[in-house]
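quick one, 377 residues, struct below
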Amino acid sequence: MNDGFLSQEEIDALLRGEPLTSSPAVELSDMENDALGEIGNISMGSAATTLSILLGRRVSITTPRVSLTTLKELQNLYPLPYLVIEVGYTHGISGTNLLAIREADALIIADLMMGGDGTNPPSELNNEMYLSAVGEAMNQMMGSVATSMSTMFKKKIDISPPKVNLVDFAADSSRMTDTVGAEDSIVKVAFRMEVEDLIDSEIMQILPIHVAQEMVENLLAPVQTPAPAPAQQKPTPAPQPTAPVASAVQPSANSGYTPQAAEAASRQPAPNVPVQPVQFAPLQETFVTGHDTNIGLLLDVPLQVTVELGRTKKLIRDILELSPGSVVELDKLAGEPVDILVNGKLIAKGEVVVIDENFGVRISEIISPLERAKNLQ
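---
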C-alpha cells in the first residue's frame, strides 16, 4: 500500500480473500536449485522427444537454469510477445505450472504442425487454426512432463487441460496468470531449445514457490521400506549322547588313553576309502497329454473382434478440412483382403460379403502361429 492507495495487485488479493501482508523473502538452497534443475532436465527431455515426434524434426531442450524472480521482473526482462501455456495439477501436486515460449518460435512450430517446412511461418498467431495446432503441441509436451514426474516421484501426477494465451510482456496491463501476483516470488527454469536449424531460442517453465518446494520434497522424500521382521532364534538342539567308541585293545592304567582322545580319533577320516562317480539311470522320454477341461475354463472369456478395412496417415491440416462427402484414401487396394483382429492383434484375413442385407467377413487365410507370435511382441 503506497500513499493510502491500493495497487491493482492488492485489490486482486482482497477480492481473493487474502490478507494484505508483505511477502517474506524467499531463497532457494543449493540443494533445492539442483533438485529443480534435475526435475526440469528429465521432464523437459521427455517433452523434447514428444515434440520431435510431432514435428518430424530433431528437437533438443537442454541446460536448465534455475532462478528466483517475479512476474513483473520477467516482463521487464523479456519485453516480447510470448505464448503462455498454463496447466493445473489435479492429482499428486497442488498448484499450477506455466510454460512460456516466444511467439516467433511458436509460429515456426505451428507451421511445422500444419505441414509446412518452418521456413515461411505466418507473421502472427491470430489464426485460430495455427493457435490450436501449437496449443496441441504444448499440450502433448506438458503431458510428457507429467508422466516423467510420475516416474520420478513414484506416484500418479495428473494435469488439467491447458489454457493457451498470447501475452505481450511489453504491455504493462498484460497478465500471464491469476494464480500469483506480479510482485510474488516465482521460480523460473529456463531451457535452451533447438529445432534443427529453425529454432535456437529459450523456453521457460514458471512455477509458484509452493509448487517448486512440493516438487523438491517429492523428489527428495526417502523411500519408505518395511522394517525387517525380527529374526527368530532357532531352538538349540538338545545334546545327543555320544556313542561309546569300541576298541579291541583295553587301555591300561598307564597308556594315556582318555575319552577326549578317543573322540578326536573317531573324527579322523578313514584311510583308503574307495570313491566312484555316481551313475544315473537313463531318462525316458514321456509325453504329457493336456486335459480338455483346462481350455474349457477360457471358452467363456469375451474377446473383441475387429475388421480393419485399411489405414492412412493425415496431417492436422487435412483432418481439419474433412467435411461430409470427403473421401479418405486407405493404404489397401480395392478387392484386397481385409485384416481380422482379435483384441487388436492380427489373426486372419478375409473378404467382405453381404448376408441378408448385413455385412460379414469370410475368412480366407489364418495367420501362421509364428506370425501371430511376432504380432504379440
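The CA atoms of residues 204 and 312 lie 36 Å apart.
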